[in-house]
Amino acid sequence: MTLLTALEAPPERSYDDLPRLMSxxxxxxxxxxxxxxxxxxxxxxxxxxxxxxxGSADDPARDRFYLSKxxxxxxxxxxxxxxxxxxxxWLPRWASYDSPxxxxxxxxxxxxxxxxxxxxxxxxxxxxxxxxGLRAQGLTxxxxxxxxxxxxxxxxxxxxxxxxxxxxxxxxxVVVVDNGSSTHNxxxxxxxxxxxxxxxxxxxxxxxxxxxxRALTARxxxxxxxxxxxxxxxxx
Length: 236
Ligand SMILES: [Mg+2]
Fold this sequence. Notes:
alpha/beta, binds magnesium ion
């Protein structure tokens, strides 16, 4: 029993292992900016913030993470591998015909993935519904949803900003990874849109793990939180 446990336990991995895990996945050149802009946010969430792991992936009281920006999942798969949700052996064949790891994450096929995503504008409204459901059940779990700056161009997100603010969903955190890729957003204006609807907002360096941890663990009574994580401009 002891031997089996030792063999089955995934090896401990650190942030420094992520580039190697990412390099095992090839062929996503189209979305490499989407994949790498989220890497530090994802790592800090799973390493320091979220109360969830491979052993609690079905626990009703777990924290939920929704990757709404599902069209660039390489960093997500690398972090899930580093944290033991999925085996490293899955990575080299990602996006092949019978691989569970698609170009868009599938909640049915990939352990630890909470929503199937990739079509922009879906994850944030789903997170609002989940936060409301958790509150109705009296659970203290949090919901964190990651969206892209360009994804906020989708109208469904604005409805979600309004509703979560009106309901005071303080168990909800939205992370906007801002790489200046939006068509319609004015530079520097993202946080203000949320504050106007009653949210708590923080704007941080999306590569600074200490700043990200501080912002992502904040919970302000009666207000949802948005963290704008600024990273390198996509077109720079
Ligand atoms: Mg973007």
